Amino acid sequence: MMKILKTVLAVLLLAAVPAMAEKDKKEAVVLPDVEMLDVPTAGILDYYGFMMKTRFYSDGGVLGSLNFGVLERLNLGAAMTVDRLIGSDSPIRMRRPEIQVKYRFYDGGYYMPAAALGYDSQGYYYDAVSKKYLEKGKGLYLVGSKEIGVSNFVLHGGLNVPDFDNNYLFGFIGANYTLEDKLAFILEYDSMFHNDDPARFNAGTRIYITPYFQLDIGVREIGRNDTFANGTPRKAERIVQMRYTTSF
């Protein structure tokens, strides 16, 4: 546990160095969230924007992703997981890279939410036998985001098809409330509509260390304590993730 803690603190310190330099900019404004924990939002990176994310998950695994604002409304990126990277367990396994694409086609109005269409193949809990993720990625998804009722309270929701072999339609919903651009509270209800792939309830806190560097602390699958179809334990999972956003 101490080894994992030291590793997280070291990465946090290294990532914070360039982020702290951003304080010299005259107008440091927190950028819109492009994602929460597992649920996407309709937010996108600006043209020439860049986001790097590192997530630490169960059993010493690390997920890394890079996303770019290649056009005014289009983001492209890739993600990859490395199982058992932290700690003494072996062997370390690098999984295949997964692609991430998002296109924001509507900026929203007084009554209508902003909307985006995307594709994300990054899943969780990789099964080496079937060579698939036990928790599938979002796949093709449509998401809308809108501030509701209270200032800084934003609701996100959408539909997704993670697997084109089955063509099951899933749903997801989430909300976040931000306090003075310093702290945000996140709730998600993901993978809805199908009992053979049970819904997930996630919660977390996002700390805005600077407007460009955030630290997320969350719990996935709250209340879950069973197994996947292959016998792998499925229970609540604590995660820590760091995100650094800048532009070229």
Can you describe what's shown?
This protein is mainly beta and 248 residues long. The protein has one domain: Porin (Beta Barrel), CATH 2.40.160.40. Helix content is 8%, strand content 54%. The protein is built from 1 helix and 15 strands, in the order αβββββββββββββββ. The protein has one helix at residues 2-21, and strands spanning 49-57, 61-69, 74-83, 93-94, 98-106, 114-120, 124-127, 132-135, 139-147, 153-161, 170-179, 183-192, 200-210, 213-227, 233-247. The protein has a 12-stranded antiparallel β-barrel with strand order 1-2-3-5-6-9-10-11-12-13-14-15. A two-stranded antiparallel ribbon has the order 7-8. A hairpin with a 4-residue loop joins strand 2 and strand 3 (74-83). It starts with a helix and ends with a strand.
